[in-house]
Fold:
Amino acid sequence: MAATLLDGKALGAKVREEVAAAVAELDHVGLATILVGDDAASHIYIDLKQKAATNAGMEARDIKFTGAASEEEVLAAIADVNADDAIDGLLVQLPLPGHLDENRIIAAIAPEKDIDGIHPMNAGRLYLGRPTLVPGTPLGIMRMLDEYEIPLEGARAVVIGRSAIVGKPMAHLLLQRNATVTICHSRTRDLSRHTLNADVLVAAVGSPHLVTPDMVKEGATVVDVGMNRGEGKKVLGDVDPAVIERAAYMTPVPGGVGPMTIAMVLENTVTAAKLRQAAAVAPAGN
Structure:
C-alpha cells in the first residue's frame, strides 16, 4: 500500500492564512530580504518570499546587490535594517558570492530580526533547548509531523545531513521532542545500517535519489528535503520516489517541504514582531 503524502502545499497555505490573521492584529509587521549576486534559484526564492509576505499583509522590502558588491556594502545594508524599527525580520539569502565572509555577514544580523534562525545566538538557544527563532525548513517539517500526528516520543529518528540551516537544527528539534536521533551525512559508512532503523527519516544531504527503497524501514515516515536539478530542469529529491511503496508517510518533491519553508519564514517574522513589540512596552528594568 502506497504511503500517505504529507501535503506541504495545503498545510503551507493554512499557515499563511494564520500568519495573515496575526499580521492583521498587529500594528505593523515588516520583512526585509537581502540578495547578493545573480544566482537564478536565489532570485526565485526571494521573489516567492517577497510575494508571500506582501500577500500576508506585511511590508516587504527587497534589497538586491550585484555580485560585485563589497562586504562593506552588504554589512552597511544589514546595519540599516537592524536600526529600522519598521522592519521586524531580516533574511539574507544564501549562498553568498565566494568573496564575501558568510559567517561575518550572518553574525551582523540582529538576533531578534534573524528570521532564518542562523545567527549564533539563535543557534545557541536552540542547542540549549530554549529556541526563539528557528530555521524555517526544520520548523516546517516539525509542523507537518504534528499535523499528521506522527509519533515522535521515543521514536528512532535519522537525519541525513548536517547543515546549519537544516540538518543540525532538525536533529535538535527532534531530540527536544524525545526522539532518539542519529545524524548521518555524506561520509557516513554503511548508511543503510542507520536508515533501516529509522521510524522517522529526514533526507537533507543534496544527493539525488540517495535513499532507495531497500534503505527504508517498512512503515517509516520519510521527509525529503532535497531539491536537486535533473535532466530538463526536473526537480529531484534525495529520496527515490519508489520509497512510497515502503513508507507509511512521505513528502512529495515538489510540494512537500518547500512550501512549508516559506510559510514558516513568515511565521518567524510574526514571532519576531510580537517579541519586539512586547519588549517595547515592557516596564523598564524587566
Q: What stands out?
A: The chain has two domains: 24-112, 135-259. The radius of gyration is 19 Å. The first helix runs from residue 8 to 25. The longest strand covers residues 30-36.
